[in-house]
Structure formats: C-alpha cells, structure tokens
C-alpha cells in the first residue's frame, strides 16, 4: 500500500487521513467490496489512490446521507457493484 499511496502524491494531511481510513478498504476487500459511509472526503482520497492501486478500483462506495446515491434503493436491489459507485470510476 505504501508505494501506491506515494504514487498518488497526496499531501501529508491527506496521506494521514487516508491511512486513518484505510481499515474501511481492508474491510471491503475482505468482505463484499462495498463501503457505506458519509465521508466523501475519504472516498475522494481512495479514488485518487485507486489510479495507482488496481485492487481497490472495484470497491463500491455509497453515501447513505446523499440523496443522489439512492442508498436504500441500491440496498433493496441487493447492493450490486454498480460501476458508477466504484472507487475506480473515471470522472
């Protein structure tokens, strides 16, 4: 992980935030590859790092507090791995 974080060229505070929230990624990789979190800042950091870390690209991120994410509908549909929700989404 260290090399990939360095390649993303995060600022020191961003790198510290990334490392603090990294257990979310580890849990997603160990389970269903999904994260439900209101932390859009963390999602943005993880998305930046995903450009250098292919393994985390398919992780799906949904913000249950964001109406546009339609979290309840997504869950009711079985939480499919929608490309629009993945960390590796190219914006």
Separate helix tally:
4
Distance between the termini: 23 Å
The computed structural class is mainly alpha
Number of domains: 1
In short:
By secondary structure, this protein is mainly α.
List the helices and strands and how they pair.
Blueprint: H1 2-7, H2 12-30, E1 34-36, H3 40-50, E2 60-62, H4 71-76
Parallel strand pairs: 1-2
General description of the model:
By secondary structure, this protein is mainly α. The chain has one domain (2-85). It is built from four helices and two strands. Strand 1, helix 3 (40-50) and strand 2 form a beta-alpha-beta unit. The mean pLDDT is 88.
Relevant terms:
91 residues; mainly alpha; two-stranded parallel sheet; 4 helices; 2 strands; 7% strand; globular
């Amino acid at each position: 992980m260290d090399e990939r974080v360095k390649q993303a060229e995060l600022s020191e505070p961003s790198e510290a935030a990334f490392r603090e929230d990294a257990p979310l990624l580890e849990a997603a990789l160990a389970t269903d590859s999904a994260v439900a979190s209101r932390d859009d800042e963390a999602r943005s950091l993880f998305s930046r790092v995903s450009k250098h870390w292919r393994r985390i690209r398919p992780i799906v991120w949904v913000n249950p507090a964001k109406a546009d994410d339609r979290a309840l509908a997504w869950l009711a549909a079985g939480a499919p791995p929608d490309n629009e929700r993945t960390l590796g989404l190219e914006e």
